[in-house]
Each structure stands twice: as structure tokens, then as C-alpha cells.
């Protein structure tokens, strides 16, 4: 907005000497135009007694301005009318423009929609066409490949091996990387090597018939020999079990040992019978060396013995090399028995040829073949063991390899390298076993509701209690029986027992006679790392109530009884006398979990107690008389503790219950001291302290009454948990509190008190005479000796600080 600056107007003075009336009008008009004050004109006319003259001048001035006003209004009104006309014209143009745009948009929509629909249809049709073209090309490739495969099969059926190989080469060259079907490609990749191997066997038919037959016989022979070694091991295990039972019952006899020696002799006779076939070597499996010996004799007759020996050795070496191939299409867990049985049968046959072949093969050549086989088996085991992530799979292969070693050792083959590979992967097996146990324990703990187990039948008691020797009495209880532990205990015990048995199974028959220390080391890890860690995790994350925490603490005590069973069981399975295993005193491995369980239970109980201790807000700290039966909070706390004791003593061991109750009583004592130190208590008198004395005596009486459940010593230890509050009350009620400064008396009677707390609390103690208006009646009286002693104590402690 533009501001209009008014200029001061000056009325010209008349030159012709107008009248005074005309002069006054001109002055008035100039004053109004200049915005001056008209007060002087008003005073002047009233002073002269002629106000009508002023009114007349004003009317004239207003009339003289009316024409100017009309001119200004006329000029501005005309501009306004012109602007309104312009706006109306503009509005009309805008409406016409809007209508034109709407019509243009409608026309554009009508024209573009069909075009866009056609474009979408075209794109979709083009994509379909591309897909169909790609599918046709893929099908053409597959058809041409199948035609080649069919042609190759026809050539094989007609024994046209050259043409068949050409087809295979054409498949590999033209279609190996262009086959669109994954299944078809995998079939081609699998069948091409098999077809070539088949052609190679057919080309070498002069000697191939016997080689094919001996390979099948070798595999079956190896499986049977290893099976008999397994049966012999099973009989040994049964004999050891009988010997362990006899050791436990102190009835070990010499007859059992003789029986074991006879079993060993029978095992050797049976294995010899498998391959014993008289002169020709015919045995149970039709193991016949006659065709081989005939061919060798004919070549010797013709003077081609060396050539045949070389030919035989090369072919047998090739057979052994082919036996080393591990199929990538079949898991090694499924094929390992066939793999090792084939090798075992091969060397059983070579041992017989070496002894009865008349120089057909040399001992050095057999040893070289065996060294090659050992290196390959070790390589395969290293590779397969490094890939395995399941302990049970590794154990199955280890057991079969150890049986292979037992079998071939009887034929004089050294197996130390194989046993070294098994020992090398001992740590990995146990790590996998620990990992499996960790998962199983986590599942067992997650499924537990932390409620006492309910057993209806005797077999349940035997399965869950007696089998782990965690019973508290040798007397069979009445059924149904409610155990003091939850399902976590037997479930975890079963996992630990299974771990021990699997560990011993892996360590057995591995060339190491004494392996109890190794089993014990991993058992310690299982208990201290896996079980303790799993329990600790559950305690920290899943325990939410007093009942669950109490059950967990009870479980810890039962685990402590099962702990000895675990190591005795490991010693028995390892063949170690129990007296040697029991000599070593071991620390309880679940210390962290036990401490966390008791700490969690104590914490939850403290929370419950804190709820009752809030009633301390109702204590009258300046009471006129001490409460007779103790304060309300103390009675409520004692009722809660008595209820807790009656419930906890059913499942918690005495020492665990004592530790927890001592912690709770110590917390109560700290809370009493904390109340006296708190800002909510500004002051208190002797009557309030006497009330606290009654409360502490009630709590001490509760602790002493537990002697029937615990013992006199344990009850005294419970009572000692209240020592801080007891000594503080005794100090405040003492007639000579300054004795606290005496080191001897303080060590004997106030050893649990902190002098800083003593100063803070003592300053709040007020005598009865210190009440409001109490000084009027006692002014000039002699000061209370106890008060004087207390003031001296406070002053001395402050100075010392």
C-alpha cells in the first residue's frame, strides 16, 4: 500500500485588508487543513460570547469540501466499475477455455484407450511367442539328444562299440552344455561313464569273465568276514557286561575268562572256514580259483608266464583302483559298507593267491597294493569325515572301519594308519556329539513345565530314578509317587548317559587301550559347558515364579547325586575299576547353574518379602509406647516364611534351603537398616526402636525354631543373618552407646555395623523430651546420660571421618 504524505497547506493572507470575520474563517480553515488543535478557536468564541460564529465558519468549510469529496468518489467509482467489467470478461474467457480443455481430453481418451489396449495385447502375444519359440528349440535339442541316445543303445545291443562311442562323443561335444533339462543332463552325465566302462569290460572279455565274478565274490566275502568280526565283537561286549556285573557283585570266576578264550578261537575258525576250499579254494561263497590257475598254467606252458603275471597284476590293480571310486550321487553313509567290504574282499583273495598261487603274485606287489589302498582309504576317510556334521554318522563309519581293521589284521595286514585317522578325528566327533547333546538338552528344558514328576508304576520309577541312582532311599516307595524333581532331570540324565556310551563306543576298538581319561575329559565338557550352559540359559530367561525357581533349585540337588553315577558309568564302560575312578574327588560341574538357580529363587523370595516390608511405612516412629506384639510387617513376613518352609522342605535339600533362607533373612535385616537410613524416616524415638527389637526377636525366634528341620548349627547360622539389625538395635537401646568407640567392645558386640550408618541413624534418634514444646517443661533440667553418650559417639565418629 502506498502511503500518501500530506503536505502542510498555507492559507495566503489577504492583501486587500478583509474583515476580521473573513480573517477568522481563513485561519480556521487553515488549522483544519493542517490538522491543528481547534481548542484556541473554541475558547476564543466562548470568551467573546459568539459561538454561533464558529458554527457558521465550520458549516461553510464543510460545504466547501463537499464538492472535492464528490470529485474524488466519482473518479474512484469509475475505476472500480471498469475493473468489475474486466473481471466478468475474464471469467467468461476462463469458462470457455475450461470447456475446450474438457472436450479435448475426452477426445484424447477415446482415441488413446483402444491404442493402449492393442499395445498390451501385442506385448503379451510377443512374450508368448518368444516362450513358445524357446520351448520348441529346447524340445528340438532334447529330441536330437534322445535320438543320439537311442542310436547309441542300438549300437550297444548290436556290439557296434565304435559307433556307440562316436555317439557318446557327439553327445558330449554337441549337447553336454546345451541340454535344457536338468534331469536329462544328470542322466547323461551319469550314464556316459557307465557305458564307456561297460564297453571297456566287453572289449577285454578274454579275462573279464573271471574278473567280474571275483569282484562280486570279493564284495560278498568282505561283507561276510566283517559281519563275523562284528558278531565276535558283540560276544566280547556281552562277556564284558557279564564281567562288569560279576565285578559289581564280587563274584568274578575263572570260568568266565576261559569262556572268553574259547570264543576267540571259534571266531578265528569261522573266518578261516569262509575262504577254505581245499586245493582249489572253494568255500562257502563258491570262492573258486580254478579258472585263474588254469589260465596261469597254460601261459606257463606256452612260455608266457611273465606276461600273464604282469597282465593279471595290472588288471587287479585296475580293479582295486576302480574300487576306490566313491560315488558322488550316493551319500557315503549309505555306500561306505560296500566300499570297505569290496576292499576287504580284494585283499582276502590276494592273500589266498599269494599263499597258493605258485608265484603268480609276489609278496612285495601285495604289500604295494595294500599301501596304496591304505593311503586311498585314509584320504577318503579324511575327506568324508571333514564333511560330516552328524556325530552318529561318523560313529557308524568309524565302527565299520575298525571292524575292517580287525578283519584284515588276522591276515597279516598292518592297520595302524587307519587307526591313526580315526584317532585324529576324535575331537571332531566329540564336538559334533556335544552339539547334538546341546540341542537335545535345549529341547528337553523347553518341554519341561518345572513341576514335580508323577510316577504311577514301578517301571517308571526304575526308568527315571533307579537307572541313574538318584534315589534318596533304597526302599521302593509307594505308588503313585511324586518325585522331588521335574522331567528335566531324567531327560538330561538320559542324554548324558547316551553321550557316555557313544563316546566309549567311539574310543573302543581304536587301538587305544586306556581311554577313560579322554572320555572323562569330554564328559566334563558336556557337564560344565553344555548342561550347565543350557540350565543357566533357562534360569536366566524362562524362570518367572517362585514355584519354578524352587523346582529348578531342587533339580540342581538331584543332578549332584547323578553326577557320581555318570563317572562310575563311564569307568565301567571303559573297563576301569570303580575303586580307581572313585579316588578322584571332583567338583560339582553345575556350579554356575546351581548358583544362578539359588540366586533366582532368593531374588524372587526377596521380592515377595519386599511386598510385606512396605508395611514399614505404617510404623509410628515417634510412638508414645512401644508395640507389644511387634509391628505388622514382621508378623506378615514370619507367616510368609513359615509357609515357605513348609512347602520348600518337601523338595529342597536341607543345605539349599538353609542357604536361601539365610540370604532372605539377611535381606530383611538390610531392609530394616535401610528403613532407618531412608529419607522417609526423619526421626524416631526409643519406643520405635523397642518395637524393632521385638520384630528382630520374632525373626530370630523363627530362625531358632528351624533347628528341628536343619540342625542347631544351621539354625544358629540362620540367626546370624540378622546380626546387623540386631547389633544396631542393641546399640540404640544401650545405656552407653559410646562403648562403640572401644575397639574390643565393637569387635565383640558391634562387628557387623558400619560407623557411617551408625552416625546417620544415631542422629535421627530423639529423646522423649525432644518432642514439640517439650523443652518448655524441661528447661534447666539435667541432660539424659544416654543422650549425652550418644551425642559423644556421634561427635567422635564425625571427627574420625
UniProtKB/TrEMBL annotation:
One Gene Ontology cellular component: exocyst
Keywords, comma-separated and alphabetical: Cytoplasm, Exocytosis, Transport
UniProt keyword Transport present: yes
Domain Exocyst complex component EXOC6/Sec15 N-terminal: 57-226
InterPro entries to which the protein is assigned, alphabetical: EXOC6/Sec15, EXOC6/Sec15_C, EXOC6/Sec15_C_dom1, EXOC6_Sec15_N, EXOC6PINT-1/Sec15/Tip20_C_dom2
Localization, UniProt: Cytoplasm, Cytosol
Domain Exocyst complex subunit EXOC6/Sec15 C-terminal: residue ranges: 418-764
Pfam families xrefs: EXOC6_Sec15_N, Sec15_C
Signal peptide start-end: none
Gene3D superfamilies given in the database record: Dsl1p vesicle tethering complex, Tip20p subunit, domain D, Exocyst complex subunit Sec15 C-terminal domain, N-terminal subdomain
GO biological process: acceptance of pollen; pollen germination; pollen tube growth; vesicle tethering involved in exocytosis
Keyword DNA repair: no
Family: Belongs to the SEC15 family.
Role summary: Component of the exocyst complex involved in the docking of exocytic vesicles with fusion sites on the plasma membrane during regulated or polarized secretion. Involved in polarized cell growth and organ morphogenesis. During cytokinesis, involved in cell plate initiation, cell plate maturation and formation of new primary cell wall.
Protein's UniProt name: Exocyst complex component
Source organism of this protein record: Salvia divinorum
Amino acid at each position: 500500500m502506498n502511503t500518501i504524505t500530506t503536505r502542510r497547506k498555507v492559507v495566503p493572507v489577504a492583501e486587500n485588508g478583509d474583515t476580521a470575520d473573513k480573517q477568522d474563517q481563513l485561519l480556521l480553515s487553515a488549522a483544519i487543513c493542517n490538522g491543528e488543535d481547534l481548542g484556541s478557536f473554541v475558547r476564543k468564541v466562548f470568551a467573546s460570547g459568539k459561538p454561533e460564529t464558529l458554527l457558521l465558519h465550520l458549516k461553510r468549510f464543510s460545504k466547501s469540501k463537499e464538492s472535492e469529496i464528490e470529485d474524488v468518489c466519482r473518479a474512484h467509482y469509475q475505476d472500480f466499475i471498469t475493473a468489475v467489467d474486466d473481471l466478468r470478461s475474464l471469467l467468461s474467457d476462463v469458462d470457455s477455455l475450461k470447456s475446450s480443455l474438457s472436450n479435448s481430453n475426452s477426445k484424447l481418451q477415446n482415441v488413446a484407450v483402444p491404442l493402449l489396449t492393442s499395445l498390451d495385447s501385442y506385448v503379451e502375444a510377443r512374450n508368448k511367442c518368444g516362450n513358445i519359440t524357446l520351448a520348441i528349440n529346447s524340445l528340438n535339442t532334447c529330441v536330437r539328444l534322445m535320438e543320439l541316445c537311442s542310436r547309441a543303445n542300438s549300437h550297444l545291443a548290436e556290439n557296434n562299440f565304435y559307433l556307440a562311442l562316436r555317439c557318446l562323443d557327439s553327445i558330449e561335444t554337441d549337447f553336454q552344455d546345451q541340454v535344457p533339462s536338468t534331469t536329462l543332463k544328470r542322466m547323461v552325465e551319469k550314464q556316459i561313464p557307465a557305458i564307456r566302462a561297460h564297453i571297456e569290460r566287453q572289449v577285454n572279455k578274454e579275462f573279464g569273465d573271471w574278473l567280474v565274478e571275483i569282484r562280486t565274490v570279493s564284495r560278498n566275502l568282505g561283507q561276510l568276514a566283517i559281519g563275523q568280526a562284528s558278531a565276535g565283537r558283540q560276544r566280547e561286549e556281552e562277556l564284558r557286561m557279564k564281567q562288569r556285573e560279576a565285578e559289581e557283585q564280587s563274584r568274578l570266576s575263572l570260568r568266565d575268562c576261559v569262556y572268553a578264550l574259547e570264543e576267540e578261537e571259534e571266531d578265528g575258525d569261522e573266518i578261516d572256514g569262509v575262504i577254505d576250499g581245499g586245493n582249489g579254494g572253494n568255500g562257502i561263497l563258491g570262492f573258486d580259483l580254478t579258472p585263474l590257475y588254469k589260465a596261469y598254467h597254460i601261459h606257463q606252458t606256452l612260455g608266457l608266464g611273465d606276461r600273464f603275471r604282469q597282465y593279471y597284476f595290472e588288471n587287479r590293480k585296475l580293479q582295486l583302483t576302480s574300487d576306490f571310486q566313491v560315488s558322488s550321487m550316493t551319500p557315503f553313509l549309505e555306500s561306505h559298507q560296500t566300499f570297505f567290504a569290496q576292499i576287504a574282499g580284494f585283499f582276502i583273495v590276494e592273500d589266498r593267491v599269494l599263499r597258493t598261487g605258485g608265484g603268480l603274485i609276489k609278496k612285495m606287489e601285495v604289500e604295494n597294493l595294500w599301501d596304496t589302498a591304505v593311503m586311498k582309504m585314509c584320504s577318503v576317510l579324511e575327506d568324508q569325515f571333514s564333511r560330516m556334521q552328524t556325530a552318529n554318522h561318523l560313529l557308524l563309519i568309524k565302527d565299520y572301519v575298525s571292524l575292517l581293521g580287525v578283519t584284515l589284521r588276522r591276515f597279516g595286514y598292518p592297520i595302524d594308519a587307519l587307526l591313526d585317522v580315526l584317532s585324529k578325528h576324535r575331537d571332531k566327533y566329540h564336538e559334533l556329539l556335544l552339539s547334538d547333546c546341546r540341542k537335545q538338552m535345549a529341547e528337553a528344558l523347553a518341554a519341561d513345565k518345572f513341576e514335580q514328576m508323577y510316577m504311577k508304576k514301578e517301571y517308571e520309577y526304575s526308568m527315571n530314578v533307579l537307572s541313574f541312582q538318584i534315589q534318596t532311599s533304597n526302599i521302593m516307595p509307594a505308588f503313585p509317587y511324586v518325585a522331588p524333581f521335574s522331567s528335566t532331570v531324567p531327560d538330561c540324565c538320559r542324554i548324558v548317559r547316551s553321550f557316555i556310551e557313544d563316546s566309549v563306543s567311539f574310543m573302543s576298538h581304536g587301538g587305544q587301550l586306556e581311554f577313560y581319561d579322554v572320555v572323562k575329559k569330554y564328559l566334563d565338557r558336556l557337564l560344565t559347558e553344555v548342561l550347565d550352559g543350557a540350565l543357566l540359559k533357562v534360569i536366566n530367561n524362562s524362570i518367572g515364579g517362585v514355584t519354578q525357581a524352587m523346582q529348578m533349585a531342587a533339580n540342581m540337588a538331584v543332578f549332584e547325586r547323578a553326577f557320581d553315577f555318570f563317572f562310575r558309568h563311564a569307568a565301567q564302560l571303559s573297563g576301569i575299576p570303580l575303586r580307581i575312578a572313585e579316588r578322584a574327588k571332583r567338583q560339582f560341574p553345575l556350579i554356575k547353574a546351581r548358583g544362578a538357580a539359588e540366586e533366582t529363587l532368593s531374588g524372587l523370595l526377596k521380592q515377595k518379602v519386599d511386598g510385606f516390608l512396605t508395611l514399614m511405612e505404617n510404623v509410628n516412629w515417634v510412638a508414645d509406647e512401644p508395640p507389644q506384639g511387634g509391628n505388622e510387617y514382621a508378623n506378615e513376613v514370619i507367616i510368609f516364611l513359615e509357609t515357605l518352609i513348609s512347602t520348600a522342605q518337601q523338595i529342597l535339600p536341607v543345605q539349599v534351603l538353609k542357604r536361601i533362607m539365610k540370604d532372605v533373612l539377611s535381606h530383611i535385616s538390610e531392609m530394616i537398616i535401610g528403613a532407618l537410613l531412608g529419607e522417609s524416616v526423619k526421626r524416631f524415638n526409643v519406643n520405635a526402636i523397642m518395637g524393632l527389637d521385638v520384630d528382630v526377636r520374632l525373626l530370630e525366634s523363627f530362625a531358632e525354631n528351624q533347628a528341628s528341620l536343619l540342625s542347631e548349627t544351621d539354625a544358629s547360622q540362620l540367626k546370624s543373618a540378622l546380626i546387623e539389625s540386631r547389633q544396631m538395635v542393641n546399640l540404640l537401646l544401650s545405656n552407653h552407646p559410646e562403648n562403640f568407640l572401644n575397639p574390643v567392645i565393637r569387635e565383640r558386640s558391634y562387628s557387623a555395623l558400619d560407623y557411617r550408618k551408625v552416625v546417620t541413624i544415631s542422629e535421627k534418634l530423639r529423646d522423649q523430651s525432644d518432642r514439640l514444646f517439650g523443652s518448655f517443661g524441661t528447661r534447666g533440667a539435667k541432660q539424659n546420660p544416654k543422650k549425652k553418650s550418644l551425642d559423644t559417639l556421634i561427635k567422635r565418629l564425625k571427627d574420625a571421618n
